[in-house]
Amino acid sequence: MKRRNRWVFLGLIPFAVMVVAFQLAPIISMLTGSVSKDKGAGFTFQFYSKILNSPFYLQAIKNSVLISVFSSVIGIVIGLVCAYSITRFSPKVRDRLLMLSNMTSNFAGVPLAFAYIILLGSNGVFTLLFQQWGWSVFADFNLYSWSGLVLVYVYFQVPLSILLVYPSFYGIREQWKEAASLLGASKWQFWRTIGIPVLMPAVYGTLGILFANSMGAYATAYALVGGNYNLLAIRIGSLVTGDVVNQPQLGNALAVILGLSTLLAVFLNHKMTKRSRMLQAVKEAS
User: Fold this and answer.
1) How high is the mean pLDDT in each 10-residue block of the chain (286 residues)?
2) Is 43 helix (H, G, I), strand (E, B) or coil?
3) 105 near 159, Cβ under 8 Å?
4) Which protein family is named in the record (predicted)?
5) Residues 6 or more apart from 117 whose CB is under 8 A from it?
6) Do 68 and 211 form a contact (C-beta atoms < 8 A)?
7) Which letter does DSSP use for residue 229 in this model?
8) Where do the H-state alpha helices sit in the chain?
9) Are 87 and 174 in contact (CB under 8 A)?
10) DSSP secondary structure letter of residue 222
11) DSSP designation for 192
12) b/e map of 200-239 (b: 16 or more CB within 10 Å)?
């Protein structure tokens, strides 16, 4: 038994090395770099103070949070509707739709931005086609703006949302629907009092993941708007790899704020998930 455990621990060594090299080491470097002085050794909070007193960086945080909130809420609403629709299909069609969702959830970054530029950019296929037909569908739409970023973010949020909330629909048993129907409840009453409360823990948990996914998105936004739109991830990238002036310490401080905002969102969603489960348990007990 002991020899077997030894082999198990040996098998975990590559995983532990990966965690230390690509998780712990970057986090420690980011935290220490955010409180290190520009020149020489020392400890300072001047970069955090600079961020909190700079309207430019505060706007970047605000823009990132707003885009993340909007794209996450839209993504979860569309994801819920799509996930419920998928459960109504036959197993064969259902598997294919889930496979498609899995594939599209990984289609992000530069290829996604390039695809949208081809389709809906200033000289995109649909933009020119609708102009030729005299349709003004995209007359006021600008892909390289806030609304364009939300549209692109929603694209990669929806498949992820479907994959995360889809299993929770199987927690709603058909016997519950039949019992509710026999007792005279309408479909809306069933979903309001039973279906939606059962789904809420999964909805809260998925919202937190979608928010974190959106806050950390860099390649898609950078390929689409470059440095023309003030986003937190783009500001961090420009400070760390800037062509003219590098300010890695300031970039580290912004990255810490980005990480804290993401952790805060996940923590709040975790608390709401626990609260929702407790309320559900109380209802079932009563």
Assistant:
1) 71 88 89 80 84 91 92 93 90 88 83 89 86 79 86 91 88 82 86 85 86 88 84 88 76 90 82 71 62
2) strand
3) yes
4) Belongs to the binding-protein-dependent transport system permease family. CysTW subfamily.
5) 124, 143, 224
6) yes
7) S
8) 2-19, 25-34, 46-52, 55-87, 91-105, 110-120, 125-133, 146-165, 174-182, 187-190, 196-215, 219-225, 232-241, 248-285
9) no
10) H
11) I
12) bbbbbbbbbbbbbbbbebeebbbbbbeeebbbbbbbbbbb
Cα–Cα distance measured from residue 80 to residue 172, given in angstroms and rounded to the nearest whole number: 14
Question: Do the Cβ atoms of 127 and 145 come closer than 8 Å?
Answer: no
Residues whose CB falls within 8 Å of the CB of residue 98, separated by 6 or more in sequence, listed in order? 86, 162, 163, 166
The DSSP 8-state label assigned to residue 122 in this structure reads: T
Residue with tokens 């400070």: 239
Handedness of CA 122, 128, 134, 136 (dihedral sign): negative
Alpha-carbon distance of 134 to 130, in angstroms, equals: 6
Three-state secondary-structure class, residue 132: helix
